[in-house]
């Protein structure tokens, strides 16, 4: 198994120690592996969010290209539109 040397701040050194002394982890390697698993999970979630946003943007741009949009010319029209959307959302839920 590969070995790495790392330098830690005092804060993370205390965090390591508390994780091991509490019994949550058996040793420092387990702490590092758990941290890396969480980092990997967060990166996967971030990639999924970016893909979702890209798909939503594509859907929005396609709607604009089709002319499937609502033009609002005033704050009152915006308020009215948002009220209707809110009411429709309540019916769905």
Describe the structure.
- The protein has helices spanning 10-21, 28-66, 75-92.
- It is mainly α.
- The longest helix is centred in the middle third of the chain and has 39 residues, at 28-66.
- The termini are far apart.
- It contains 3 helices and no strands.
- It has a domain at 10-68.
| Helix and strand run | HHH
**Strand coverage percent:** under 5%
What structural class should be given to the helix and strand makeup?
Answer: mainly alpha
Span of the ends, CA to CA: 52 Å
Stretches with pLDDT under 50, minimum 5 residues: none
Radius of gyration: 25 Å
Note the overall shape. Answer: elongated
Major β-sheet annotation: none
Number of strands: 0
Number of helices: 3
- What is the typical, i.e. mean, pLDDT? 94
Q: Helicity, in percent?
A: over 70%
